[in-house]
Batch of 2 targets.
Target 1
Amino acid sequence: MEKTEKVTMEKIQSLAKQRGFIYPSSEIYGGFANTWDFGPLGIELKNNIKKLWWQHFVQERMDMVGLDSAIILNPKVWEASGHVGGFADALVDCLNCKLRFRADHLVEDTTGEDVEGKSLEEISRIIQKDKIACPNCKSINWTDARSFGLMFKTYIGVVEDTKSAAYLRPETAQGIFVNFKNVLASTRKRIPFGIGQIGKAFRNEVTPGNFVFRTREFEQMEIEYFINPKDWEKSFEFWLKEMQRFAKAIGLKDEDIYLHEIPAEKRAHYSKRTIDVEFKYPFGTKELWGLAYRTDYDLSHHEKASGEDIVYVDPVTNQKFIPHVIEPTFGVERTMLVALLSAYEEEEIGSGDKIEIRTVLKLPKELAPYKIAILPLSKNEDLISKAKEVFDLLKTSYMCDYDETQSIGKRYRRQDEIGTPYCVTIDFNTLKDNAVTVRDRDTMKQDRVGIGSLKEYLGEKFC
Ligand code: ATP
């Protein structure tokens, strides 16, 4: 089997739509810019990513617990965290064609200069000095860079006034910080321990794009790991390794990952050290996940703003301190995108004039939307009824697909394309010997297995 061409965004996007992973949202109304819906396979893949993450970072750890906090929190949370007013991007408008751009992206894409951390005035000056042209109409006629708040505002109740204004959360982290005391009081956890949360976050991104890489609505999987400040370096290194372990588990290749140490002047205001885990996407090397040492910035600010005492007393040493925090954060959709990009392969199979290209998603088994496809060789009634028996036998243990249309060869190709690790074929011999053919996605090897021992056979394959 020879590997052929490289994966592109077009190939992934087309496969995702055709096979039911990701559709453009509200498509019958002409779509809705940069908004995506997850189809029957997309929801399985997404759930499997979240399940695997939870298993790695919560279930398998004695020092972690979970949480599911509200999306619309008390607006005071966002004032204390610095998001109201502070969580913004620099924007410029082209006065000629009226299109709007993120100023930092504009500079970076044209000159390669990274302007993170620079003031609005400085960015405007760079745009002028370098005579950066509008990517759309090529004119050089910009407004000054100005700040654009990224939080979605909404109103609670019937009156739209400043008192009733609230926000859709732009990160899940703050829901964890405001529950720190509750979790400490209601569990027997002591520092160091962490809280994990998976949930939706919303950002009014100015220039979303690159498929599901940057959207306005997305899911995050976040950990806030509470520590004694003296342990921050050790803990930071530990969580970096854990993130790398998770990257392996979802099938990412070492050579596609780049650890980007963010220099002090470019870090978020709350961070004393940040490493972006970047991925070599077809459109460039960009952030996949982040790891930050958030110090005690958030808990201290919430303590001040709420008046609640958040001081932790070490039960052994009696030392009193506000816990510091290491934050590993992961975007679900970006994880989904890199899992698809990493799994996609086109292989040349056959020989002589019978060479064909098979597309196969070599997803780790835990992530595969369907674990097993059950395929009666033809629409013969006896085969169908036997195939349904096999479906019933396996359905409680595995997410199974059932397909009786088209030739068996075409059905195998279809299952390869959606990453199903095993196909179970019921043929006319099955009616005589009560055995089925199990085909392996990656090797395409086939085994004949008695239905009586099928569960055990598959159990070994999936363990
Ligand atoms: P970027 O620099 O790409 O805007 P960020 O540094 O603002 O990302 P964080 O605030 O660290 O991102 O968010 C944590 C994670 O959430 C990111 O590592 C990424 O996986 C995901 N994420 C952030 N913004 C988006 C978005 N607009 N669409 C999809 N995923 C996102």
Note: DSSP finds 15 helices and 24 strands in the chain.
Target 2
Amino acid sequence: MNTVKLNVNGKEHELPLIEGTEGEKAIEISGLRSSTGLITSDTGYKSTGSTKSAITYLDGENGILRYRGYPIEQLAEKSTFLEVAYLLVYGNLPGKVELDDFVSKITRHTLIHEDMKKFYEGYPAKAHPMGVLASMISALSTFYPEAQKSDLDPEEVDTTIRRLIAKISTIAAWSYKKSQGFPVMYPQNRLNYCDNFLYMMFAQPTEDYEVNPVVSRALDTLLILHADHEQNCSASTVRMAGSSHASLYAAISSGVCALWGPLHGGANQQVLEMLEQIRKEGSDVKMMVERAKDKSSSFRLMGFGHRVYKNFDPRANIIKKVCDEVLEELGTDDPLLDIAKSLEEAALSDSYFVERNLYPNVDFYSGILYRAIGIPTEMFTVMFALGRLPGWIAQWKEMRDNNEPISRPRQIYVGHTKRDYVELSNRG
Ligand code: SDX
């Protein structure tokens, strides 16, 4: 066993050095406090691994992303979202029988309890769909109390997994319909996952609706690209919440809330709003780049930068290509795409961005593609959640299958030292 030596007040301690299958190394510090009385400190976990995982591999320097060993480029081109969901959750590509069984069971779980339809009456019309999604997923748990049990029954877990993947698309589409005052469209078992979602989003009871296969395939690719990303903010939140043995519904609902933040999944909506602002104000992209560099302003170039990718985000490259294809197929010429491309050019020729390895991330072009598909801006992060759900489930399942302990980080206290209570009358 390789080790590293730590000298604490003259006493030498040996700590194990562990290595992953891709040669990544880490100092195993779980025994550090008991042997030295010390803990580590790493706000934001920039140098801290929270677990050992076999689900997704990222190489930030070389722009590599693999799900269970399969390169994202191959999955995006050759696989389907539900096949990728199976791969992430169960660890291997399914055979035809397993895949057909998985898909048909998901297809038959797309309805939500009729009582849940009433919940939509209570939200304000302008309710942000991420707030609706988080509460509806948590509310699902009230209809399936058996999923609360701490000791997991594999059959029960599989059913909950299929229910979540199936029902999230209905919940999402219905929140859009309700926000427009439109009647909801019920899922159709004759349609595949993406066709069904587009049908529930855009069909009206008054006329026929034909799914555009190019749009549906683009959506399927987008969902694949968003399906997992190892220990990002929302996946870590799902693991943290699930580590208390809260139900999978509760853990996923917490992941939705974490994803909502503009520094994380909420960035795709912010990118569109930023591009719209550039177009409306007619301001040039160089001015936006300068603003993003100005430390006195909190403005950041949304869709740029990444905690892990320090070269390029492979997902951004694929989305940009699909974007061009879909816009060409639909014959739509989106001025925001041209603004995005010139913004990217301006940023990548600026030393501030180059020195800090700030490149377009998955959120930079995805909004333009969602817009081309007809998804409204405030639904963009919901689309991110739809794609990320299998990844969250896989992370939760790995954490529970490995019997990981409840997450409970330590801290360094920097508050007041001991002081005595002062009566109100003596406080001045
Ligand atoms: C996602 O973790 C994941 O895997 C996330 C994700 C996933 O699939 O789950 O990939 C999805 O969340 C993508 C990221 C979407 N967010 C954005 O696009 C928001 C804009 N980006 C940033 O806020 C930022 O880049 C982060 C949050 C993404 C990463 O932040 P880090 O790693 O904590 O880096 P940092 O904030 O320490 O920045 C380092 C430097 C700072 O400048 P200095 O202090 O060195 O002078 O880079 C600057 C930052 O000010 N910087 C930016 C910037 N991003 C970082 N400056 C301008 N514009 C930006 N976008």
Note: The two ends are 62 Å apart (CA to CA).
